[in-house]
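Re-run with default settings, no changes from the original entry. Doing this only to confirm the output is reproducible before filing.
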Amino acid sequence: MRKEKSEYFIIGKRAVLEALRAHHQIRLVIIMENVKKDDIVDNINSLAKKQDIGTLYRDDQWFARRFTTLNPQGVVAVGEPYSYLSLEDLKIKSNSIFLILDRIQDPQNFGAIIRSAECSGVSGIIIQEKESVDVTESVMSISSGAVFHTKIVKVNNLANSIRYLKEKGVWVVGTSADSKQLYYDLDYRNHSFAVVLGNEGEGIRQGIFKECDYIVSIPMRGRVNSLNVAATAGIILFKIFEVKKINGEYD
């Protein structure tokens, strides 16, 4: 059983800024003494002051000792863990886009997926409690703070969650390289959709496939003939967003 940390480092200028903008619970902002001042750092200082959050200054050696794998860019914050939502918290509209992740385990992929999801207007991400990466410090940083503007639901059973969405009128689109149905041939207008992406090595489980209304693929002509799951997410999510945008479904 994974033990939940009581506090997390939010690492990197953009991640800290977005956490402050989203009013994520932050106890302390730590800034490198010789950090290069720019608009992001100025905004961090301003928001921390407005929210009555303490600011501490440390030298570059302090940062170097503590952050060896992620680049803090001279700014970190100490905050609470990410708070997951329930399925019932998700609001479903005709223009809603949801993302269902079947056992995504790489923090780099999860962070990149969250960033694409937030930028493409995804209404919520659903992950499975077991065999999936959590919203960790790495994920927060890699998402460039997009996680703080994203609704993420953690569930025990993905298949049951898909059935719940389908009962609410959501059409579910799975992904497979073997499908003859191309992702851009579906009509995404005037309806809510959920996109299912599978594990980096094994893809979507068969039981999850059976719950999907459509199975689509992305055409390729390169020799590798394989896409990273985060790249797949970006391609399909932005296509749905594009279709709905052109169709006038967003203000």
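The mean pLDDT is 95. DSSP finds eight helices and ten strands in the chain.
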